[in-house]
Design a protein that fits this description.
Pfam families: adh_short
CATH superfamily: NAD(P)-binding Rossmann-like Domain
InterPro entries: NAD(P)-bd_dom_sf, SDR_fam
CATH topology: Rossmann fold
Shape: globular
Family: Belongs to the short-chain dehydrogenases/reductases (SDR) family.
Radius of gyration: 19 Å
Bound molecules: NADP nicotinamide-adenine-dinucleotide phosphate
Strand order of the largest sheet: 3-2-1-4-5-6-7-8
Keywords: NADP, Oxidoreductase
GO molecular function, one term: oxidoreductase activity
């Protein structure tokens, strides 16, 4: 019964989102469509439509974008008229993806980027500075996961943590100085997962003291987050991780996304006092369970649907934009 209700709720939500996604972004076109149902402010795309702040000069970078959700985020941002840098680590796949989008008339440029290699990230930062004078939007989408179904191997834990958490962190640290000043604020969006919730019902961190520290803004620090992932990786090496209260499902991946979530909240606080045009808003989101290579093509939604909340979140008008939040399906969810 519970499962049936959850399925019905998901379907209802899917239909609502599908309706929102049909709404045009230009105020002129808007009046040709029926008014949308009443919504909470974060969901109020109608308002967003009236408050379009970006232009063809707005530069958005999407990492890990040669396929899956990242490719779709790139496409949808370009469809909204932004200048998109589709960043991917594989030259051929990246070029092919960007060429395909350009063939549709979209303003998309490919640039090679491996988020786990400091040299690659530094080279990318220099290039974005030389080419565009910086960027306005960064979507940290690149991610790795080696488990599907009921598997829970930690064989690739180092790579998972290096890509999902350390790669995201490196990109943020390196790109912050490159974010262009703007009255609308620059935006960073980290791709996370509900599996990374510290208080998730089924996948929570068993160590209560650690969980409490992670959830308490006053205790949150880079040392705490880095220490947590280092501790986990040490236990993986020693073969002791299984009995230490880590999340039970896709453990390495869940810890990497838990770290991304905590780091998003931490950076939001660190960036909060930047003045006027130098503001940077940083949030994270979960795309849902999406049919991509990562899930072995299993899931509830398509890459197009999974990308939707990312595009919505980074395009929020300055009157609604916020920081340090976790989003899914165009609304705020708890950490
Ligand atoms: N699918 C889901 O259900 C789901 C749910 C929650 C969150 N997410 C998150 O959504 C994001 C996109 O995942 P997806 O489902 O679209 O999976 P995907 O199709 O496997 O895409 C992952 C992308 O990340 C790239 N990548 C991996 N390591 C990289 C690195 N070191 N440097 C640069 N790029 C790298 C991959 O590049 P290559 O092509 O070169 O391997 C690939 O393009 C990930 O962060 C994932 O954790 C997905």
């Amino acid at each position: 019964m519970g499962k049936l209700r959850a399925k019905e709720r998901r379907e209802q939500r899917r239909l609502e989102i599908a309706h929102l996604r049909e709404l045009p972004y230009s105020p002129a076109e808007r009046y040709q469509h029926p008014p949308p149902p009443r919504r909470l402010p974060y969901r109020s795309l109608t308002l967003c439509l009236l408050l379009r702040w970006w232009s063809s000069e707005t530069v958005a970078v999407v990492t890990g974008a040669s396929r899956g959700i990242g490719y779709e985020i790139s496409r949808q941002l370009a469809v909204q008229g932004l200048c998109v840098v589709l960043a991917a680590r594989d030259l051929d796949r990246g070029c092919t993806a960007a060429d395909g989008l350009r063939a549709e008339g979209l303003n998309v440029q490919f640039r090679k980027l491996d988020v786990t290699h400091s040299d690659s990230v530094q080279e990318f930062a220099k290039w974005i500075g030389d080419e565009y004078g910086g960027l306005d939007i960064l979507v940290n989408n690149a991610g790795a996961n080696f488990n599907t179904g009921a598997n829970n191997s930690v064989e690739f834990a180092e790579e998972v943590i290096a890509t999902n958490y350390l790669g995201t962190k490196l990109m943020i640290e390196t790109m912050i100085p490159m974010m262009r000043p703007s009255p609308n604020g620059a935006r960073i969006l980290n791709t996370s997962s509900r599996l990374g919730r510290a208080n998730g019902r089924r996948n929570r961190v068993g160590d209560v003291a650690l969980r409490e520290k992670l959830m308490n803004d006053d205790c949150l620090s880079e040392e705490l987050i880095d220490g947590m992932v280092a501790n986990f990786l040490r236990q993986v090496k020693e073969g002791t991780w299984a009995s230490n209260g880590w999340p039970q499902v896709f453990t390495d991946y869940s810890i990497s996304k838990l770290a991304v979530n905590a780091y998003t909240r931490l950076m939001s606080r660190k960036l909060a006092n930047r003045p006027g045009d130098h503001k940077i808003y940083i949030n994270c989101y979960c795309p849902g369970w999406v049919k991509t290579a990562m899930t072995g093509w299993e899931g509830n939604s398509t890459a197009e649907e999974g990308a939707d909340t990312a595009v919505w979140a980074v395009l929020l008008p300055s009157q609604l934009v916020t920081s340090g939040k976790f989003f899914a399906e165009r609304h705020e969810i708890s950490f």
